[in-house]
From TrEMBL:
GO terms for cellular component: cytosol. This is Lrp/AsnC family transcriptional regulator. GO terms for molecular function: sequence-specific DNA binding. GO terms for biological process: response to amino acid. Keywords: DNA-binding, Transcription, Transcription regulation. CDD domains: HTH_ARSR (cd00090).
Length: 152
């Protein structure tokens, strides 16, 4: 469904990389019946088109002692939204910012190294954001399911 814009070989390559992004071009080629060079060219084309954005290591902050993770729901005045997003974008503890529908205009994820660092983010940044009508914070207690990117 999501991969309808890709030919069959590209779909197979993407599915294999989703399962294991560290899979070699040779391995992929063996599994789908094309050469390592052909796989490399196709992967590079997918990257160039922006279909494959990055390869990364995902760290689970809850497995690191003392790390605190939370979500903020922020409702802003419409004219304050660009300034608020720019302020949040510059903070290292902010890991994700989403523009959303509904009452809240922004859904923001933050990870801090400690309760003290999270409190500092709240007091020094969140409480001082211009044009905020309402801001709520939800502490993440445990991760039950977390899928990164598109799953097929």
């Amino acid at each position: 469904m999501f991969l309808d814009g890709l030919d069959e070989l590209d779909q197979k390559i993407v599915q294999l990389l989703i399962q294991n992004a560290r899979m070699s071009y040779s391995e992929i080629g063996q599994k789908i019946g094309i050469s390592r060079v052909a796989v490399k060219m196709r992967v590079q084309a997918l990257e160039k088109r922006g279909i494959i954005e990055e390869y990364t290591t995902i760290i689970n902050p809850q497995k690191i002692s003392g790390a605190v993770s939370c979500y903020f729901e922020i409702e802003t005045a419409p004219d304050a939204l660009p300034e608020v997003t720019e302020i949040l974008r510059q903070k290292d503890t902010i890991t994700q910012i989403y523009r959303v529908t509904g009452k809240s205009r922004l859904h923001v994820h933050a990870v801090a190294s400690s309760n003290e660092e999270m409190e500092e983010l709240i007091c020094q940044t969140m409480d001082k954001l211009p044009g905020v009508v309402e801001c709520s914070c939800n502490l993440i207690l445990s991760r039950i399911k977390d899928i990164k990117g598109l799953r097929l």
